[in-house]
Structure formats: C-alpha cells, structure tokens
Amino acid sequence: MKIYNVYKYYTTIRESKDPKYIRLRMVQDAREYGISETARRYCTTRKTIRKWLNRYDRTLNSLEDRSRAPRNPPKRLSPQDEARIVELKKQLRPWGARRLKMDFNLPYSVKTIRKVIKKYDLARKWRRKKHETKRCLREIKRKWRAFQQICVDTKDLKDIPEYWIQKQMLGLPAYQYTARDACTGSLFIAFADELSLTYSRLFIERVLRHLKDRGIDCSKVTIQTDNGSEFIGSWQAKNLSEVTKTIESFGAVHKTIPPGAYKLQSDVETVHSIMENEFYIEEFNSKEEFLRKAEGYMIFFNYVRRNSGKENRCPFELLKEKIPAVSFDLLYLPPDALDEVFHELFLATHPKVSHHGYHVGYHPYYSHRVIVEENRIEAHSERARDFCYFNYGAEYCIAARNTIGPMQINNDCEGLAFHLWPAKWVKPKVEQISPLRYKIIDPEGEVRREELVGGVLQVVDGAGIGQIRTVIAREGDEVVIDEPFRYPPDSQSTIAFAVPPPFRGMTLVDNTIVHTGANILLWGDAHDVVIDGNICMDNGHISVWSVRSFEAQKVWGGASFMQVIHNKSEIAWIKPKQKEDAANYFGAGIGNPCCRDEKFTGSVGFDFLGLIIRDNACINQSGIVYRTRYDSVNNLWKLHDAGIVVERNYSEDGQIGVAVDVDAPAVVRKNRYKNVCWPVIRFNTAKPS
C-alpha cells in the first residue's frame, strides 16, 4: 500500500526545525523509487526532486538553502562609508546602530549599519542580566561599612487580608515603620496608627540614639528615605523637615531618592515582602501580643534567620565580621507603638495634663470595637422598631452576617441604624501650641463650660479638611488631642468642636435586611464607614443622612469618606411618573436624605465629603438618587459636598438607574442598565416640589 504525505512539501520544509534531513530522505527515495513517484509522495514537483538530487554530494551541508542575495549588490557600501561607521562606533561604544543613524543622520539603513558593526567585531558582546546586576550591587554593598547607609520606609498594613480583620477587631497598628542597614541587613521596626512626620522623627531618633549609645559613629551614617510627606513634610516647604533636622542633630546625613526610583529602596521593600509572608499570617489576640510577637520576629530575623541575598548568613554574623568587638544587644531594639511612646513623652513634658481630672482614655466612644455578628432578629408586633441600633457615637464596630426582619412596617422602623444628634461649635477658634496641644480662642464663651473631653476636633473646611482628632485632656483654655494632624490645618482652616464624636471606622458587611421601614440608615455624623456586601429588600434601603438643625448650626453633621460598595438593593418603591420627579425618591434605593431645621441659616463645613457608591446592584424599582439641593416651604437649600463618585453600578427592571442633581460635584461613569426606563437622569431642583 502506498502512503503519501498529507502535507505539501513547502509546508513540511517551513515547519521543520532542520529541513536537511527531510531532503536527505527525499533524495534516498528518489534513487530507490524514481523521481515521479517521489514527487507524488512529497507533494512537490519533479523539478524540485532533480534540484536536490543534483546538489547532493554525500554531505548534509549540500542540502542547506543557498543565499539568495545578489553576488554584486548595487548598493554595497564603499570602503569610505564603512570606515565612517567604524570610526563613529569606536568613539561611541555604547551607541547602537539606531542611535548612530539618528544622532549623525547617516544615509544608511539600521540593518546595514548593524552589519558593518558586526563585520568589524564591534558589537556589544553581552548585556548584563537582571540577576547579574543584583549580584554586582550586592558585591558593592558587601564592601560598605556597617550602618553606612540605613534605608527607612513605611508599610501600609491595611492591604494584608490575613491581618486586616484582626486589625479592625483588636485595634492593631495600621502602619509599620522600618529601618534596614544596606550592608548587613539588620532590621529595626516600630508601629503606629498613622503616617506622620512626628512619628517618623521619633522612630529615626530612637534608632540613631540606640546605635550611638552602643558605640556606632553616627557622623558616618546616611539615612535614605523616599519623598513621602512623613519624611520631608510638605513638598512646598522651604525649610528642612523635622526628620532632616533630627538626623543632622546626630551628625548623620539625610538623603532622599529621586521620585519614582523605588528600586533604590529595595533592601527595605524586600523585608516588607518577607514579613508579609512570614509574620503577618500569624494570629493575634491583643495589641500587646502583637508587639511581643513582632519583637520575637525581629530577634529571629537579626540573630537567626539566614538571608540568601547576604551570603546565606544572618545580619549579626555579618556585623561581627565588620565590627569584631560588637555588643551582642546592638541589634536588639524592641518595636514600640509610636503613638503610645509619643503620648508618654508628651505627658512627661506637660505634667499639668496628668495632674488634673480631665484626662480620659483614648476611646471615649459609647460603643468601642463591638462586634454584632450572625444574629437572627425579627418581630411581628406593630410597635416593634429599631432592630439593631447604634446610638450616640461608636468607633470601629462591625455588624456582619446578621439577618434582620421582617417587621410590621410603620413610618419610623429601622433595621440596621446609626443615630446621632451631634452638637458642633465653629465660632470658637483654636491656635496650635504644639502638635498635640491647642489653645481655645472663644470670645463669646460658647464652649467655656462644655465638657469637651471625649469629643473631637474636626477640620470642616480648608487645609486638612476631613480630619478628626479626639480631645483627651483639657487644661483651662487649652486642649490636648490624641494624635497630631497628618496634614496640619492652617489659619484659613475651619475647625469645629463636636460632641458626641461621630461614628468612625464602622464596617457593615454581608448583612441581610428585609421588610423594614429603613434597611440601613446612617443619621447625623459619620466618618470612614464601609457598607459592603449587604442585601436590602422590600422598602427604603441604604440612606446616608446629613443633619443641620437649630439656629447658628449648633447641631449639625454630615458624612465623610464613606464607601457604599457591593450591595444589593431589591424591591423598592421608586416609580416616578416622569423623570423630573426622580429627585423625590432619594430615600428609596441608595440615596442621601437630609434633615434641616426651618431656622437654619448659613452653611459652614460639609454635608457629604468623599462619598463612593460603587459596584452595587439595584433591582426591581430600585435605583441610586443623589441630591444636592433640597426645598423647604419656599426656600431652596444647597448642600456643601465634594468628591462624590457613582460608578460601576448595575440597575435592572426599574424606572430609573442613576439620578443625580445637575449641580452635584459627582462623577457618574461605567454604570450598566437592563430594562430601565431612564438609565441616567440629571435632574434640576429649580423650585420646591
């Protein structure tokens, strides 16, 4: 039986890695079976068979393809042209063919220039690989003195999944401050709840003092940091930062890397990656246990753990090689919570604060770190209302995986609610004395007799807007706050005293609220709250309120830095007869209702600042309504709001998808719709409705 090739000769040759062997087999078949039969078997012509029969001289090289280049190229370079290329290449060794052509306007093609360079053996023999570059840098660092360069950086710990839940529940630190010697790999760490210039200065001062007390000459030390505000302060600052001044007070040098050159901080970035995989997967039961385990890990890293990037030796071994008489405790500096260290130092230098009865703990909220989890709550009485209720302030509480409802719906029944009537004073001014101490300037005596301890200082306008700090002590007309402002307010900023303090750091996740008057409600004053992955059905769903009541705004509050994400809102009552009426349905699906007193005059501060509504699903007469103007009798009231984002939401089977006031400072983008009458509405609240 005859078996023929199913592929044509050209295809077989093109896909072959070495066609010489196919041609050899073809020549052998031609001698045995004849030219015509071989041509049929290989799906080619007899002319091709004869060509390779004639070329074959019993060597494989004779079956290779011959060059098709012309023997006498009409555009061959003259010896003078070649000499010019060779001369330029010898003068500029790093320049390639493309660069030579571009910079010297050579009339030859890049390919031709490259051929000349290769012909005269001027091509670059090798290019350093990435691992070879790292190896060379390691050799350079190995020759440095111990602590010749210390790299300092910070790490945000909130993006580590295994750690984040424990942080929220136990109040663990949010940031790690890290210092690492580039030569030996020695590690020093500390922790804090914020990134600030004050904490960076305190951390670096502790490290340098520790080294100095153990005989290290700090005048030969260079501290390298990036250009973050926690190291250099404001980028517009004309004077040296406090960090730089502290470093120079020890005789050391402060060096910052060029913007974007993060690879220059590779030593400290590497240890961040190592700790994320080795330390932050641990389980912690308290903040004290966290600090103890961090201390144990630092001892392990400095005295035991072998580093593959440092000759498979631990930092202390390398340090003994550099300094034979080194003290054993040189690499032992227990990690501290910098905020607590700072408070101890501050109170030690301000004894008046601790000798009077105003000092309280740092968590004056009514509910602090409370977890409401996996409960089933329902009622059938007509008098039932307010199933899960946080009242008058709470901090870092979690409501997760609860099932709430149904209930007999009345006009004021709430499933998962946060309710607060905050009193705020903006007429009294404050003047900074130190990062933690402020003087009250209160000519009208509005807060003279008010109990401000446990309340907050809140920046409601100007530089530093949105920041909140707790008042932990009061001494006459001076108050002490728990932490320095990360972005200090200036003389143009408006700072309010707020009592009770707002809801802060709350998390509402994976709850199911069904058949209640209001499913999820935040009323009064809220800051840094996440509403994530909740299912709300059958009535008013998720509403974030602003409150302004009483003359001169003694009672008012809004919402700042809120996230409403990944929620499902189903079966609401948004059924406007015309799209202009969408403004009246701000309390149905996801919206921003407001409460305002008739005596309200003026507007100070913000109502909504940084409200993100993202990746939510609104189904069956539900939707998203954001309103920036409200009417009352014959007046029209304009909100103070900024930074509103409505994006990537999905709407199905309803009258409206997203309805936003035409004057709202909102970004509306990438939302999707299905079976929606009016997908996007920009309504105009021109007159009371």
What's the gist of this structure?
With 689 residues, the chain is of the alpha/beta class.
Helix vs. strand class: alpha/beta
What level of helicity do the residues show? 25-40%
Tell me the number of strands: 43
Radius of gyration: 36 Å
Largest sheet: 14 strands, parallel
Strand content: 25-35%
- For this structure, the CATH topology of the largest domain is Pectate Lyase C-like
Query: What's the CATH C level of the largest domain?
Result: Mainly Beta
CATH architectural designation of the largest domain: 3 Solenoid
- End-to-end C-alpha gap: 93 Å
Number of domains: 5
The geometry reads as extended
- Contiguous helical run count: 17
Extract low-pLDDT stretches. 352-363
| Overall average residue pLDDT | 83
Molecular structure report:
- With 689 residues, the chain is of the alpha/beta class.
- The chain folds into five domains: 9-63; 79-119; 133-342, 2-Layer Sandwich (Nucleotidyltransferase, domain 5), CATH 3.30.420.10; 383-422 and 504-683, Pectate Lyase C-like (3 Solenoid); 423-499, Elongation Factor Tu (Ef-tu), domain 3 (Beta Barrel).
- It is 25% helix and 28% strand.
- It has 17 helices and 43 strands.
- Strands 8, 9, 12, 13, 23, 24, 27, 28, 32, 33, 36, 37, 41 and 43 form a 14-stranded parallel beta sheet that branches.
- Helix 3 (35-41) packs across helix 4.
- The relative contact order is 0.06.
- Residues 352-363 have low confidence and may be disordered.
